Every structure is written in structure tokens, then in C-alpha cells.
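Aim 2, interim progress. The first record below pairs a target sequence with its C-alpha cells.
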Amino acid sequence: MIGGSVAAVDLGATSGRVMIGRVDASAGTLALEQVARFPNGGVRLASGLHWDLTALHGHALRGLADAVRTEPGIASVGIDSWAVDYALFRGDRMLGEPFHYRDDRTERGVEAVHGTASFAELYRRNGLQFLPFNTLYQLAAEGDALTLADALLLVPDALAFQLTGVRAAERTNASTTGLLRVDDGEWDTELMDRLGYDRALFGDLVDPGASLGMLRRDMAAEIGASLEVVAVGSHDTASAVVAVPMTDPTTAAYISCGTWGLVGLELEHAVTSDAAREANFTNEGGVDGRVRFLHNVMGLWLLSESVRQWERETGEAIDLPTLLADATEVPAAAVAVFDANDPRFMAPGDLPARIAAWYREHDLPVPSTRASFTRAIVESLAEAFAGAVRDAADLAGRRLETIHVVGGGSLNRLLCQRTADRSGLPVLAGPVEATAIGNVLVQARAQGWFGTDASLERLRTLVASAYPPRRFTPQP
């Protein structure tokens, strides 16, 4: 057997999981087992909206202990999470809980950065779409806090540091900061100097598959085993794209659909044309030096936050499958499409009210029921996804034949079908747990379990065999 088991700590914006991944490359088998799941989300403090990274660390440790009890032979652990957010450290001490990217402090950071470097210049340097919460804007809003720190670590790197004592910056996630050069994938120290960011804060860059060392002795004692920590595609989308079962990346688009919908292509080289900048497409680092050329669409946040609001109003839980079934009965022609990427939908709170306000401002009928609101959200997301796929193909000069949807959105049959209908391309849905699978596969490859045939295409062949995607054919 060429294989074994590893653990994946997979952190999303609303929940986190610890998974055991079992890989046997010789037999062509791949399986996941969830051993722990825990909540995540923003915490409102006097200073603003934060993440509770301390709680996440505790949940991860307990989950890893459960994993070791379940599978004593685990070889390593890898950590992935959302991008852009970071913790500041002085020595071993974390200087407060990290800010949440949805905190409104970033607005003043944008103005400060663009006063020194225009967006056009930044795009030439880092290839990133404009998002007001990109790390370089957040840093401009920090004030004196940066002078107290001697290290800045993105969320997965911060957790890995707590586990190992090693400060490192995994490259795929570092590419989302706006401080990595798009041409060579190295820190842009000249830009750091111009913006007044101490280059000593930023750790040495490492690639997915690099060993970050063994657990600290006290962490190993708490977990019950001495494990190697391996850098994976620590930006969750980078891990998810590893597990997209594309037979030919040159003719396929992907949508990693969860809280956000990341819609794009896998390329060998970045696209930093004026047209790409004006379309607000981003060039982020992928595993094996690939480029994730994509556009951020608001994603299932629109639905989940609307459901939370309805539950707050009624005090009753809403069954999502029933709600989607009801939405399926609403004719598509009965609802108007709204702009899913309108910035007003970014913040937590009463999203249905904001969606209704958008309709009124555009002299369009407001959906009258929860089912029709849900149908409107699905139609608007499908249209945004289809438009982003078309734009990506045009900007990169690609002729596409399929769209792969992975992540939680792949379970939403209505969304997958309407994306196929609106794009005119077949949609292949699954796997649901793409991020954890990609995390596991990068670790498995680092352990040598794929031998000499360890290309991304080989890994994806295994994914397609273990998790055959569901096909949605465009309907007239």
C-alpha cells in the first residue's frame, strides 16, 4: 500500500471541522471522516468585529485529539482557512483577537493606501482585484498596533505557529495580502516600505507541501501524539481547487461555492491586463505555482444571512431543504435578478431588508414571500456566476466546455441547474468537501504516497474516481 491517514483542520467563516483523510494511491481510494465540527463567526467587541482565534485553537486541539484516538497512525496535520485576516504577535503572545474582514475599519485603510499607490499600480504589482478588506488595506487601519508587533501571521499560519513555534507564510494565502509580487510570488518589500509596513513583520514564504516541523511538546501532550504539521494550500480556495476533478483545466471553469462564490480558471500565468483590472478579476497563488484567476461573488452568504434574519424575527428554526424546495416551485420569471455583488450586502444584519431596498431603488417588484426571496437569491447568484465564467473565458482567451461547482453550493441542486441554464454550459457538481480533500491530498503527496506520479492531474483523477460529480445539463 502507498498511503495512510492525515488530519485536516478546515476552517470556514461559519464553522470549522477536523477531518481524517485516508489515502491509498495504489488502490485508488480516498475517504474522509469528520471527527469534530464547531461553530465559527464574528464576535462583536468594543473595538469592532473580530474572530475568536483562541476558541478556534482550542476546538482544533480537541478535534485533533479526537482524530488521534480514532486513527492512531495519523502522519501529519494541515490547516486551511479563509484569506486576508491576520493576527499580530510579539514573541509568543498574540496581541488581541484578529479583526474580521467584514469590520468597517477597512474603509479608512483604502483611502490611505490609494493615497500612496493607485489601484492601477497595485494591480500591476500584485494582480489582485479590489476588495476593501484585502490585507494591505486592513494594515493601513491598524494605527499604533503595528509598532507593538514583531510578527504578522495570516490565520492558518498563526494557528500553525501556536502548534509548532515556527513562523512561516504559506504562499497561496500570502498572495491574497496584496503584498506579494504577481510576477515572481515573492514579498514586495518596496511596496511595504512605501506603505510604512515593517518588512520584518512578514515571515519567510513556504510552498504547499513544506514541513513546518513537529508539534510543540505541550501541544503533542494535549493531543496525545507527536504529529508533523505540513503547509497545504492554506487559503481554503487554493485547497478546494486542488480537489476540482477537472480532466482538462484548459476547458473548465470552477466555482468554489460556500460563503463566497469564487468563480474562475486555473492558469499557468497571471492576467494583469487593463481589461482584467476593470472587470475586477484577481490572480491568486495556487498549488504548484498555478494561478487562480477568479472573481469573488457574494455567494451563499446571501442565503444564509437571510435565513438567520428570518429566524431572528420568528424565533423558529428554518429548514433549508424545505425552503429550497419551496423556492423551486416559484417560476424563475416571477422574480427579478438583483446585483449579487452590491457592496451593501457585505455586512451582517438584515439582508432581506437591504435586498428589498435594492429592488425599490430599481423600480422592480420586491419578492413577497420567503420562497420567492430565496428564488431571487438563487437566480441572482446563478446570473452572477454565469457572467463571471463568461468574463473569465474572454479575459483569458479560453473556450470553455464545463463548469465545476465544489463546496457546499454543489448540494444546492436549484443553484447548479440555474447556473447551467444561464451559462449554457454543463455543470458538474461535487465534491462537497473539496477544501478538506485538497488539504488531505497535498499532505499525502508530501508524505510520498503518490510516488513519482504526483501531478495535480493525478490527484484530481483520484478525486473524480472517489467522488463522481453530478451532471446538470443546460435546459432551455
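The second target in this work package is listed in the same format:
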Amino acid sequence: MQPGDLLDLDVSGVAHGGVFVARHEGRVVFIPDTLPGERVRVRLTDTRKSSFWRGEVLEVLDAAPERRPHVWAQADVDVAPEARPGGADFGHIDPAHQRELKHRVLVDALARIGRLDAASLAAEPVRTVAEILGQGEGADDADADADGIRWRTRVSLHVDDAGRVGPYAARSHRVIEVSELPLATASIERAALALRGGDAGRIDLVQPADGRVRILHRPEPASPRGRGRGRRPAGAASDGPRRGAPENETIRERVGDREFRVDAGGFWQVHRQAAATLTRAVTDALTTADGAPGVDPDAWHLDLYGGVGLFAAALADIGGPATRVTSVESDARATEHAGENLVEWIGARAETDRVDRWIRRLRAEASPAERERLQRGVVLLDPPRAGAGTGVVADIAALSPRTVVYVACDPVALARDLGAFRDAGYEATSLTPIDLFPNSHHLEAVATLSRSDARG
């Protein structure tokens, strides 16, 4: 069969990456915009591989009971596939069932990629932001909309050569214009929909804790024919977004009563309550069964891929004002902010370096006294989507910390790294999956590990 051919298929499962699984004469066909239990009419888009094909849904012939009208009308299945925007690939599914499907993907990755006891490790269901925060900070509005919309405080749009502004169509680099952005905060949506024209490139919209939207222009480099010069995008909105804000403008985010400095163009969690939720999850992971803090103030603790110091602050909060914690981050501006954000703890410091290089050097050069303190400490890592990798895992394990806390944004990378930790002598003792990105396939998780020889 060739791209463009039509098939009527029964959907049997969910796969990593926001796609679902059907089969045709034994061959797997990956398709988005559906869910298990449905029969759909599919147009094939890629038949190059002998092991699997890809397709797109044209029509739902027999809908599953968990299907609902898409929260983003333009992304619904009755819209032509090429006109559906990306970024809300689970928006057609009942929220509770979204979490169940994410849990299935996590369990499959743990078992198949990590070769772990997934049934035991992933016994806890995917939890919402409100469930993590409980009656504490931000709980009143953390999950106020049961449809899981209006949570994005950061949105990236694109400008094509024709001056069109909008998100990319799903699974493409084709810009499509939209009339709404339901996952974004209302202020970002208003600012985004007011953008007109401009140089080809990207436009980032950021709404920090002060509520004012910043608009960051990232035009593509100029070409010999002048691309990247000339008109600039204009932004306007009823609540007055800041136009043309520089990437290195220092903005402030809040977690509880603490402020964190961060560049407007720097990394901060996208969900408006993500930082508070993950801080709570990490704190819970480091609290012992009898309620005692799990951070020894006399040990040495590491926050790897530390950004602006969010988790280093959590570790120091648990351990107390003299807790020795080192945050390691490759971005120099983020490290500069981390140093400012951690100034209240006399034992905290931030270092600029690639984590793989820094941890390898520490493994080679740590003194006996430093090793003893590391062995009583916590290593917290929050790697990018690709994960930490076997080399970093091996170097962490060689330092023999008492506890490892792994904050993950990709279940496959998490499963691979947890498998590597197990091979290096660490067992995962708990895993909390969190639905930080409703209406998308993305899943966050916090895993706690301890040395196998120190269990109990």
C-alpha cells in the first residue's frame, strides 16, 4: 500500500508519543486523534517501514465511550488533518481516561525498556495537580477547570515566510492560524491572537507571576535574500503585554512565599502550578514514614540539571539553613540566577557546567571526607527529555548517595535510566506520576531510589 490509501482499522492500544496502535494484516499502524476501542477510517501517510506504518484519522466510524468534543475545536477530528494544530493530542479524551492511558504508557515503558517490576513500581495512578497540592498552596485554583485548560504560562508560536502567525500543525512544521489557544492562560491567548505578520521565526509568550505577558521575538537568521529583516511582529492585548521584551529580562516566579529569579527566555515549568506541585512531590518523597525530614543537614546534597535552583531550594528547605547543597546547570544565566535564589542558605552554591562533565570530575577528585558526606546525601536530578543517560547514572551511583530523587518528563527515558540505576545497585522505592500537562500525552513523574544494600 502507498501513502494516501485508505483503511478502516480497529484501535487496540496506546503508544508513547501521543499515538495509538491499530493493525493491518499483522502490521502495526500508528495513528493520532483516536483512542483504544474505536474503529476509524485512516489515510496512510508513511509506508516506508516494513515493521510499521503511520496514518491519520479521517473519520470515526465507531466512537469509544471516553471520546468527547475536543477542548480545542480546531484540533477535533472533523477538521482536516492538515489543519489540526498540535499540542493538545489528548484533548478529545475524557480527562480521567487520559490519565489512565498515560499510566499504561508508563507501565509499558518500565516493563519493556527498564525491565522493572512495573506492576509494583507503578501501582500508584496518575495524580492531578490538585491531588498533589491537596488543601495547601494553590489547591483552590490548581485544577479549577475540569477540562484541563488555561494552564500554560508559556507558549511558542511561529511565523512563516508569508507572515502567518500560529502554532505548527500537528506533526509538521507548517504554520496554521488559529482563533483560540485554550491551553494557554487567557492573557496569553489574547496577546497571541493579536499578533500580526513579521519576520519568519518564532515568537514566545511568557506570563510570570506578576501576570504581565512578555512577547519574545526570535526571528530566523537573515538570508542573502533578506529573510529575517524588515517587518517585526506587533503585539497588543487588553491587559497590556510587554512588547519586544528581551530574553534576559529578569522576571520573578513564586512558589509559596519564595520568589525565584529567572530570565524571561529561560526555563521555567509551563503549568502555572507545576513548580509548586513538583516541590511538594519532592518534599513528600524525602519525608520518612514517621514524618522526619529525609535530608541530613550535615551531608552534601546535589541538584543536577538545577536550572535556577528550584529543587536545590527544596532540599535546603528540608535540611535547614546550613544544609550543603550544590546546584549544577550548564546555562550560565540560569546558574547566575540560582546563586541569587539560594543566597539565604549559607551552605548552598551554584556551578555552571555540563552535568556529565561535572559529576565525572567529582567522582575522580572527591576527597574521602567529601565522599563520606556525599554517601549520606541526596542526589536530585531533573534531566531534559532525553534523560540522564547511562554514563551520568553510573557516576552518580559510584558516589553512593543515600537517596536519589529523579524528576522525569519522559516515561521511556525514565524507564531506561531506572534500569541503569538498578544495574548500578539502586532500587526505585516509590514512583509518583503527575498529570502536569492535561490534554496532551506528556507525563511528569517523581521517582525515589535507594541503595540496594541500604534498604530498610
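The first strand starts at residue 6 and ends at 15. This observation will shape the mutagenesis plan for the next reporting period.
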